[in-house]
């Protein structure tokens, strides 16, 4: 584990995020206030994201390959970036919710590292793993900076009437892509069926929480909780959760907890577990504007990188899944000013 953490620490030094002076207080705010506007100028809008992805494809000499897996309701292409050609297949999904932006920025940094580095450990990852990254699953919602996709005709069970659907409620195994009213969820499902990844990791943001010691929760993880998920699938999902917990526990900028998720089968975490893949939800602190954005991007990058590395080296199998519920603490109380 020390070798893995040393490499990750070195790579974190080169993550391209703005320099912030994070306050030293506990619970280490600040967070976005209701009356405070979020500035998005330094983040990639849709056109900038497309340019960045195509640039990655060019500068990595084909190590990063792009595929359009579908279109949004406003006909924006939904991109999946592939890196590596190994037998161990993984799918990452970022920004199903349009206002949860930092994970997409982390994914761009990770793709740059995996695509451009000639470090022997990175080359080994490309040889051992095939990684498929759905980069910004919700481009329409991102442009509006809201949770849902964009569908003015929507009268959804999960979402907002006249605005759109909550994409992360429409992955149920019995909902085929042709039947799915949510094109973004249908595109993810089609890509899943095409590539049959062994792991699906879904990255989100949550509100602001603290643990019993008053430290800010930066990350929460959870595995499939639907009762019909097969035990071997649940076990490898818990192992993946332990990889992220163990990795982030080595860094002073991260505090990890269990996410208190539900059993609804339409949530990606449960749906892809029911379909037979190891599946993990990863939630990072959100609702913070740009004030702590650099730290969140680094945390997300570390989570993503640790999963690829542990799968490539098979160190993921060293974790005891039975320890996950005992080792990873439950999430604490919301902080005043958070969600």
Walk me through what this model shows.
With 339 residues, this protein is of the alpha/beta class. It has one domain: Zn peptidases (Aminopeptidase, 3-Layer(aba) Sandwich), CATH 3.40.630.10. The chain has helices at residues 2-12, 46-59, 102-116, 120-128, 139-144, 183-195, 231-248, 268-274, 293-313, 324-327, and strands at 64-71, 77-83, 88-94, 129-135, 159-160, 164-165, 199-206, 209-210, 216-217, 219-222, 256-258, 278-285, 333-334. It has an 8-stranded mixed sheet, with helices on both faces. A 3-stranded antiparallel sheet has the order 9-8-13, with no helix packed on it. The chain has a two-stranded antiparallel sheet with strand order 5-6. Strand 10, helix 7 and strand 11 form a beta-alpha-beta unit. The longest helix has 21 residues, at 293-313. The protein starts with a helix and ends in a 5-residue tail after the last strand. Residues 16-41 have low confidence and may be disordered. Belongs to the peptidase M14 family.
Task: Write the topology of this structure.
Blueprint: H1 2-12, H2 46-59, E1 64-71, E2 77-83, E3 88-94, H3 102-116, H4 120-128, E4 129-135, H5 139-144, E5 159-160, E6 164-165, H6 183-195, E7 199-206, E8 209-210, E9 216-217, E10 219-222, H7 231-248, E11 256-258, H8 268-274, E12 278-285, H9 293-313, H10 324-327, E13 333-334
Parallel strand pairs: 3-4, 3-7, 7-12, 10-11
Antiparallel strand pairs: 1-2, 2-4, 5-6, 8-9, 8-13, 10-12
Helix pairs in contact: 1-9, 2-3, 3-9, 4-9, 7-9
């Amino acid at each position: 584990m020390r070798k893995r953490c040393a490499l990750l620490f070195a790579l974190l030094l080169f993550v391209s995020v703005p320099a912030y002076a994070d306050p030293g207080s506990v619970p280490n705010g600040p967070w976005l206030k209701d009356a405070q506007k979020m500035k998005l100028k330094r983040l990639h809008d849709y056109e900038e994201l497309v340019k960045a992805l195509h640039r990655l494809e060019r500068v990595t000499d084909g190590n990063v390959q792009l595929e359009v897996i579908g279109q949004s309701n406003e006909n924006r292409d939904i991109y999946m970036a592939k890196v590596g050609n190994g037998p161990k297949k993984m799918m990452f999904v970022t920004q199903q919710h349009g206002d949860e932006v930092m994970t997409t920025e982390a994914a761009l940094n990770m793709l740059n590292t995996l695509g451009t580095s000639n470090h022997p450990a990175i080359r080994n990852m490309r040889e051992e793993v095939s990684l498929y990254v759905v980069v910004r699953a919700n481009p329409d919602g991102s442009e509006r900076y809201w949770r849902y996709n964009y569908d003015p005709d929507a009268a959804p069970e999960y979402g907002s009437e006249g605005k759109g659907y909550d994409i992360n409620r429409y992955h149920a195994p019995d909902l085929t892509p042709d039947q799915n009213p949510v094109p973004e969820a249908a595109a993810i499902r089609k890509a899943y069926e095409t590539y049959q990844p062994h792991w699906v990791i879904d990255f989100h943001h949550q509100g602001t929480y603290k643990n019993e010691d008053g430290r800010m929760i930066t990350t929460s993880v959870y595995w499939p909780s639907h009762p019909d998920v097969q035990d071997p699938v649940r076990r490898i999902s818990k192992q993946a959760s332990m990889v992220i917990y163990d990795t982030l526990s080595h860094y002073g900028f991260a505090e990890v907890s269990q996410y208190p998720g539900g059993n609804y089968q339409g949530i990606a975490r449960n749906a892809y577990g029911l379909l037979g893949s190891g599946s993990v939800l990863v939630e990072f602190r959100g609702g913070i504007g740009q004030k702590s954005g650099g730290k969140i991007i680094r945390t997300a990058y570390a989570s993503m990188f640790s999963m690829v590395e542990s799968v490539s080296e098979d160190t993921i199998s060293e974790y005891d899944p039975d320890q996950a519920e005992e080792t990873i603490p439950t999430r604490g109380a919301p902080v005043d000013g958070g969600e």
